[in-house]
Amino acid sequence: MNQLFLRDLRLEAQVGIYKRERMTTQPISLDLDIELPNERVFATGKVADTIDYAVVVQRIRAVLEARRFGLVEELGREVGVAEHAVRMQRVAQRH
């Protein structure tokens, strides 16, 4: 299993249960482990044969902008669901 690791992806999100957290966005930092769909990229070196992580980041940003999350765990689950097509292995938030 070959993976792509995106570390310390910094985005803004509305997350939290306290009133002050519900009033604004706050910075979050995500670590993502994404399983590559195949090993073709190692032979071809072509972007078309791998995961375009700019698209992954764009889709995650759209998920975070679309709603507010009560819990960090909920945010992580939604990010993983949004990226199920790229077989997300792990989503972790850094503090």
Q: What report would you give on this structure?
A:
The chain is of the alpha+beta class and 95 residues long. It has one domain: GTP cyclohydrolase I, C-terminal domain/NADPH-dependent 7-cyano-7-deazaguanine reductase, N-terminal domain (GTP Cyclohydrolase I, domain 2), CATH 3.30.1130.10. 36% of the residues lie in helices and 34% in strands. The protein has four helices and four strands. The protein has a four-stranded mixed beta sheet. The longest helix has 14 residues. It starts with a strand and ends with a strand. The model has no long low-confidence stretch (mean pLDDT 82).
Please render the helix and strand layout as text:
Elements lengths: L2 E13 L3 H4 L3 E10 L4 H5 L8 H14 L1 E2 L2 H11 L5 E7 L1
Parallel strand pairs: 1-3
Antiparallel strand pairs: 1-2, 2-4
Helix pairs in contact: 3-4
